[in-house]
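Sorry to interrupt, but I need a hand with the structure work. Could you add the entry underneath, on a fresh line?
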Amino acid sequence: MKRLAKYSDQVYALLRIVSGLLFAFHGAGKVFGLLADHQPAVGSQIWIGGVIELVGGLAILLGFQTRLAAFICSGMMAVAYTQFHWKLQFGAKFWPIANMGEMAVLYCFLFLFMATRGGVTWCLDKDA
């Protein structure tokens, strides 16, 4: 296992790049209708969320202002989970598996972790 530890920065960078790319695709679907069944109205809350996903995802992917972008994206996913998945319902609907909110919770905590860590390597951040 110690052999793997020496690659932790590179594996973290891959995690950052892949999750940023996937998040940006979510945003592209909402903003441009790319590979999406439905495109929300320009200026709607979901469309604004798409802009945050697109811009924030690209920033995370590139490692540009990673801490700020990840913090904003983490907060947005906390709002998305609370408002669109959980809806402040208790009982079975409280759990992400029941309200289809697993990805929102996962992105929320993944981006919160990235906000604490920054770009690290293979990034445009100067503090890496």
About this structure: The two ends are 25 Å apart (CA to CA). The CA atoms of residues 67 and 117 lie 7 Å apart. DSSP finds six helices and no strands in the chain.
